[in-house]
Each structure stands twice: as C-alpha cells, then as structure tokens.
Amino acid sequence: MFAKNLTTIMENKGFTQKDLRLLTGLKASAISQYVGGHNMPHPDKIEAIAKALDVPITALVDAAEVKKREFVLKKITISEAARRLGKSLDFVRAALEQGTAPFGFAAKVGDAWSYHISPGKFEAYLSGEI
C-alpha cells in the first residue's frame, strides 16, 4: 500500500525519485526500494517523505498502520498548521481559542493564550478522517 500511494502522489505532483531524495536527504537506493515496494521505511522516514510531498502521513499509510507503527509525531506549530491548512495564523489561533478546531485547543494563561495542536488529530483532520 505504501509503495502504491507514494508512487501515485509523486506522479500527481510531478516529483521524481531524485526530487524526493533532494527534499528528504534520503539515499537514492532507499527511495528506490520504497517506490518498488521492497522495503517499508521507518516511521520517521515516512514523516519526512510526507512533509516533503506536503501530504498527511495518512495519505501514504492508513490510520491503522500509523497506530501499528507507533509514529512519534512532532509538535505542530501554529505557523505549520496555518501553512498546511492554507489559512492565516489568526484564523488558526481563533479556531483554537473558540474551540472550533477539532485538532487542538487554546487556554488563556494570564493575559496570553497557550495553544496545543494534537499531531495525530491534525493528520486525521487533513486526511478527512475527522
């Protein structure tokens, strides 16, 4: 499934294996093995590939595989969320503050807001699962 999804996304975006290598820093031989379906990358490599292709992890592997492989998703910043959603920073902050974002929340601490975006819920939201 991973190899097929990777190949389809690369074709749709006009990416070559060399492009992916340059964007991820992965070895050409590793990418060839992934595309050919001979090897499954480690979760951190899948995350790097997803980021390079600007797709959620679940576009490459299904949600069950994400749980099975125990992805350690990195913290999602407001600016990263805004970029990936195609929205402004203020839009994301407002959604979190108002409790309308299904992938995180905001808490007022004194006069300032503190924001939390759940990496797993954010990926699920991007893939349309929630």
Which properties best describe this structure?
two-stranded antiparallel sheet, elongated, 55% helix, 2 domains, 8 helices, 130 residues, 434 Repressor (Amino-terminal Domain)
Through-space gap between termini: 22 Å
Instruction: Write the CATH architecture name of the largest domain.
Output: Orthogonal Bundle
Give the spatial strand order of the biggest sheet.
Answer: 1-2
Structural class: mainly alpha
Helical content class: 40-55%
Low-confidence stretches: none
CATH H-tier superfamily of the largest domain: lambda repressor-like DNA-binding domains
β-strand amount: 5-15%
**CATH uppermost class of the largest domain:** Mainly Alpha
Radius of gyration: 16 Å
Q: What is the string of SSEs from the N terminus onward?
A: HHHHHHHEEH
Number of discrete domains: 2
Shape: elongated
Number of helical runs?
A: 8
Summarize the structure.
This protein is mainly alpha-helical. It has helices at residues 2-13, 17-24, 28-35, 43-53, 63-68, 78-85, 89-98, 119-126, and strands at residues 104-109, 112-117.
